[in-house]
Design brief:
The structure holds 2 protein chains of 2 kinds. By secondary structure, chain A is of the alpha+beta class. Chain A has helices spanning 2-28, 55-73, 81-86, 97-112, 122-128, 140-147, 173-190, 283-296, 298-307; strands at residues 33-40, 43-50, 93-94, 156-158, 161-163, 196-200, 203-207, 216-221, 228-234, 238-243, 248-250, 256-258, 261-262, 267-268, 273-280, 311-317, 321-325, 332-334, 342-346.
Chain lengths: 348, 463
C-alpha cells in the first residue's frame, strides 16, 4: 500500500512537472505565431508564421497572391487562363509566366511518370461526377470516347504560348496547390520569415523549424479511419498526401469509386495503394508525385524513387502495410493504436 | 421492448390466424413479399419517430421475424400432445415460410448498407458488426434451403427421413439468431446504454429456456429417465444459471463517466479554425436513441481569426470542455451513406483581419489595431441533415466568428455502438489543438450528416 502511494505520488509529480515544463518552454519562445485562414482553390488553407517583421503585411501579400493564382488556374472561373485555354477551339493562347511554368512542370512530371499524371483527364473526371458531386458510373463506351481527347503529349507549349486540341480540357489541380505552396514559401522567405507552417487543404509546407529549434510534428491521416496513423517530424520541407479516401462515392453496384483516376483507363486507379505521402523540398514535386505514385503502385513508385534523389515517400497498401523510404526512417513514428500495422523500410 | 411487443404479436398472429394461414397460405406469403419489398426499398424519413421505431422497426430490425422464429422453434419444445403443440405444429411449415420472407426484408434493409460495406470497406466496420454480418450470411445459407424444403410440393417429393435430417440444421439457425442478437446487444448493454440490458435478458430468457426445454424433451423421449423430477430440477437450475450468467456478463460496470475538461491557456497561442473543428465533426454523428433524450455538448472555443500587432499580443484562447456526465450518454457514429456524400463547397471568402483602408504603408507608424470583419452573425443556429434512418440535428453557437458550442441529437431509431467513438471525437478536437501535433497531412473524409447540418447552420448564420 505504501509502495502504491509512493508510485502514484511520483507519477502525479512527474506529470505535473512535465506539464509545467511544457508551458515554461512555450513562454520562452521569442515570438508568437500569426496565422491566417484562406478559403481558396476549393479548399481551406491555413498559414502560421512565427517571428518576422511586418507579418501582417506579408500575410496580406501571400493572401493576395493565392487569390491571384486561383484566378489564373481555376477551371470553372470563366475569366481564368485555364478556362481560356480549354475554350480556345484549337487556337493558340498566350498565358502568364506562372501558368506556363506550372503547365511545363506538369508535362515534365507526366514524362517521368509515363503518363501516370495527366492534366488532360479532366473531362473524364467530370463524367464520373467528381467535379460536380453528381456521381455516376460512366459506360465503358463513354469513357473510351472521352479518352480519345486526352493525352498530355498532345499539348504544345512554346514559351508562353499554349495550344491544345479542340476537344481537350486541362486541369492543373494536381500540381497547382503544391506549386502555390512553393511560391508562397518564396514570398515568406524573401521577407525574412524562417519559421512557418502552411497547410493548403492538407498539403503541408514548412519553413525552417519551430522557433524553439524543434522539428514540426505532423500527423499523417489514416486511410482506414479518421485517426492519424503516424507522426512525421520534419524541417523545411513539403509533405503532401494523396488518397482515395479523400473523395469517393459508392456506386449502385456497391463498389467504391474514388477521384484519383488512372489516365490510361479512365477508371479509378487500383494499384494496391490507398495512401501516398511524398516528402521533399519542393511542394510542386510532392504534389505531382503524390497523385502519380498512387496510380503507379508500389513497385513502379519504388523504381522511380531509386532514380531520383529529391523526394522520400510513405506508401500505404490496401492490405494495411506501410512502406517508407530510408530517408524518413528516423522521422517516422507509428501511433500506438496502429501498432499492429506492418512497417517496411525501403533502402537504396 | 420491441422484442416483447413482437413476441406478443407473433403468438397472437399464430393463434388467431392459424386457420386462414393453413387454408390460404399464399395470401400470407404474398403479403410478406409486399411487406419485405416495402421495407427494402422505401424511405421512411417522413414518418414520426414512434412509427419508425415501433412499427417499421418490427420488420426492418427483424424483431417480428425473430419473434415468429421463436414461435416456430418453441413449437418443437413443448411437450407432445400439449395445447401449444396441437395449435402450432399444423402450421409450422406455413409459419416458417411466412417468417423466412419477412426475414429477407430485414436482411435486405440492413444488407444494402452493411453487406455492401462488408465487401467494400470493412475497415470501417467494428469487429462486432463484421461478426454479425458473417453470422447473417451463414444463417441465410441455412434458411433459404430449409424454406424451399418447407413448401408441400417439395416436401412431398423428398424422403421423409432425409427431410427431417436436413431440417435439423434449423437448430443451428436458431442458435445463430441468438448469437447474432447478442453480438450486437451485449456490447451496448455493457456500455450502459439504456434498454439494451433488458433486450439481452429477454432474448436470453427465450432462447436459453428454449434450449433447455428442447434438450429436456429430447432426454425424456430418447433416454426415458426414471427420475423425471430430478431432470426438471436440473433443467430449471441450468436455465437460471445460464440466464443469470448472461445478465452478469452484460451488465455495465458502474464507473462514473469522466468529466473531461481540457483547458489550454498557454502563454503562446495557436489558432485553430472552424473548419478544423468541423472537419472533426465531419466524421462523427452524434446519435441518441429514440427513447432517451440525451445530448452531447461539445463546447469549443476556437478563433477563426487572429490578430497581431506590435502593441497587442496575439490572443487565442483555446479551451475545450467536453462534458460527459451521468445523464448524457453519447454514441458517435461515422456513417457515410451513398446518398450522403455532399461535397460542401467551401465559401471562397477571406477570413483575415485587414486594415479597412490601407493607403500607404508607413514603416515608422505603429500598427493600428485592425477592425475585425465578421463573416458570421452572432447567435445560435440549428439545422439538420438525414442520418441513417432519421434526422440528425445540430445547434451551433457563434460569437465573433468563433464557434463556442455545438450540440446535437438524433431522431434515428438505431445507432451502432462505436467503441472508441467518444475517444475519436475527443481526440479529433483535442489533436487539432493539441501540442502534440502541429498539423495534419492529408485531407479529411467526406462529409456526413452532421457536417452537412453544421454547414447549413453556418450558412444560415452568414451576414
Amino acid at each position: 500500500m505504501k509502495k502504491i502511494k509512493i508510485i502514484s505520488a511520483l507519477t502525479i509529480l512527474s506529470v505535473m512537472l512535465s506539464g509545467c515544463s511544457e508551458i515554461k518552454a512555450d513562454s520562452v519562445q521569442s515570438s508568437t505565431p500569426v496565422s491566417c485562414d484562406i478559403f481558396a482553390m476549393d479548399t481551406y488553407m491555413n498559414i502560421k508564421v512565427y517571428g518576422g517583421d511586418d507579418t501582417e503585411k506579408v500575410l496580406n501579400e501571400v493572401t493576395d497572391r493565392i487569390y491571384e493564382l486561383e484566378k489564373m488556374w481555376s477551371v470553372t472561373d470563366e475569366n481564368s487562363e485555364i478556362y481560356e485555354v480549354n475554350h480556345s477551339y484549337g487556337k493558340t493562347v498566350t498565358v502568364s509566366e506562372e501558368t506556363a511554368e506550372l503547365l511545363e512542370y506538369s508535362l515534365r512530371i507526366s514524362d517521368i511518370t509515363n503518363g501516370a499524371l495527366d492534366c488532360t483527364i479532366y473531362p473524364v473526371l467530370t463524367e464520373w461526377g467528381f467535379t460536380t458531386s453528381d456521381y455516376k458510373i460512366p459506360t465503358d463506351e463513354k469513357i473510351s470516347e472521352l479518352l480519345k481527347n486526352t493525352g498530355y503529349e498532345k499539348i504544345k507549349l512554346d514559351g508562353n504560348s499554349v495550344t491544345i486540341p479542340e476537344d481537350m480540357q486541362i486541369d492543373l489541380g494536381a500540381v497547382g496547390k503544391g506549386y502555390t505552396g512553393d511560391l508562397i514559401t518564396e514570398i515568406l522567405k524573401e521577407n525574412g520569415i524562417n519559421s512557418a507552417l502552411l497547410s493548403l487543404g492538407g498539403n503541408i509546407q514548412t519553413i525552417g523549424t519551430k522557433p524553439d529549434g524543434t522539428q514540426w510534428k505532423l500527423g499523417l491521416r489514416s486511410p482506414f479511419d479518421e485517426g492519424s496513423f503516424a507522426t512525421l517530424n520534419v524541417t523545411d520541407c513539403a509533405v503532401i498526401t494523396s488518397g482515395g479516401y479523400e473523395r469517393y462515392f459508392i456506386g449502385e453496384d456497391g463498389e467504391t469509386y474514388w477521384h484519383i483516376l488512372d489516365p490510361s483507363t479512365g477508371n479509378p486507379a487500383h494499384s494496391g495503394l490507398v495512401s501516398v505521402t511524398i516528402v521533399g523540398k519542393e511542394g510542386r514535386l510532392c504534389d505531382a508525385l503524390s497523385t502519380s505514385l498512387f496510380v503507379m503502385g508500389l513497385d513502379k513508385s519504388e523504381k522511380l524513387w531509386r532514380e531520383h534523389e529529391d523526394f522520400e515517400m510513405i506508401l500505404v497498401t490496401d492490405d494495411g502495410k506501410i512502406y517508407l523510404t530510408e530517408g524518413l526512417e528516423n522521422q517516422f513514428t507509428l501511433n500506438e493504436t496502429y501498432g499492429n500495422l506492418q512497417v517496411e523500410v525501403i533502402h537504396r | 421492448m420491441l422484442f416483447l411487443i413482437a413476441l406478443a404479436l407473433a403468438y397472437g398472429f399464430a393463434f388467431f390466424c392459424r386457420k386462414p394461414l393453413k387454408k390460404y397460405p399464399y395470401v400470407f406469403y404474398i403479403s410478406a413479399v409486399v411487406i419485405t419489398a416495402i421495407i427494402s426499398v422505401a424511405d421512411f424519413r417522413n414518418l414520426p419517430v414512434f412509427v419508425n421505431a415501433y412499427i417499421v422497426g418490427l420488420f426492418s430490425r427483424g424483431a417480428f421475424a425473430t419473434a415468429l422464429w421463436c414461435v416456430v422453434m418453441w413449437a418443437g419444445a413443448f411437450p407432445n400432445g400439449s395445447k401449444p403443440v396441437k395449435v402450432l405444429m399444423p402450421i409450422r411449415g406455413e409459419l416458417s415460410i411466412f417468417t423466412a420472407v419477412l426475414t429477407l426484408g430485414h436482411n435486405i434493409g440492413y444488407g444494402k448498407t452493411y453487406f455492401v460495406r462488408l465487401f467494400t470497406d470493412s475497415g470501417r466496420m467494428t469487429s462486432n458488426q463484421i461478426t454479425a454480418s458473417i453470422l447473417t450470411i451463414i444463417m441465410l445459407v441455412i434458411m433459404i434451403p430449409l424454406t424451399i424444403m418447407s413448401f408441400p410440393q417439395i416436401r412431398r417429393k423428398m424422403n421423409a427421413k432425409l427431410w427431417k435430417k436436413i431440417q435439423r440444421t434449423a437448430y443451428i439457425f436458431y442458435a445463430l439468431i441468438y448469437i447474432h442478437v447478442m453480438v450486437l446487444c451485449v456490447p451496448m448493454a455493457q456500455s450502459g446504454r439504456e434498454g439494451y440490458l433488458m433486450s439481452v435478458m429477454m432474448y436470453s430468457v427465450v432462447f436459453i429456456s428454449y434450449a433447455v426445454c428442447r434438450i429436456r424433451k429430447w432426454i425424456l423421449v430418447r433416454k426415458k429417465p426414471e427420475n423425471k423430477a430430478m431432470l426438471n430440477t436440473v433443467s430449471v437450475f441450468v436455465a437460471l444459471i445460464l440466464i443469470i450468467a448472461v445478465g452478469i456478463y452484460s451488465k455495465s460496470e458502474s464507473r462514473p463517466v469522466p468529466e473531461i475538461k481540457i483547458n489550454n491557456q498557454a502563454t503562446t497561442t495557436t489558432a485553430t479554425s472552424v473548419t478544423t473543428i468541423t472537419t472533426a465533426l465531419k466524421t462523427t454523428t452524434t446519435t441518441i436513441s429514440a427513447d432517451n433524450s440525451t445530448t452531447m455538448t461539445l463546447s469549443t472555443a476556437t478563433s477563426l481569426v487572429t490578430e497581431s500587432a506590435e502593441s497587442t499580443t496575439s490572443v487565442t484562447t483555446i479551451s475545450e470542455e467536453i462534458i460527459l456526465s451521468e445523464e448524457t450518454v453519447t454514441e458517435l457514429i461515422e456513417e457515410t451513406l451513398p446518398e450522403e456524400i455532399p461535397q460542401e463547397e467551401v465559401p471562397t471568402e477571406e477570413i483575415i483581419i485587414t486594415e479597412p483602408e490601407t493607403e500607404e504603408y508607413v514603416e515608422t507608424e505603429p500598427e493600428t489595431e485592425p477592425e475585425p470583419v465578421y463573416i458570421y452573425q452572432n447567435g445560435t443556429y440549428s439545422a439538420s441533415a438525414y442520418g441513417y434512418d432519421g434526422e440528425v440535428h445540430v445547434s451551433v453557437t457563434i460569437e465573433n466568428d468563433v464557434i463556442i458550442s455545438i450540440s446535437g441529437y438524433t431522431d434515428e431509431s438505431d445507432s451502432w455502438y462505436f467503441e472508441s467513438a467518444q475517444g475519436s471525437v475527443i481526440s479529433q478536437i483535442l489533436s487539432s489543438q493539441s501540442t502534440s501535433v502541429d498539423a495534419y497531412a492529408g485531407a479529411t473524409y467526406s462529409s456526413d450528416a452532421i457536417m452537412s447540418a453544421v454547414q447549413k447552420a453556418l450558412d444560415s448564420a452568414k451576414n
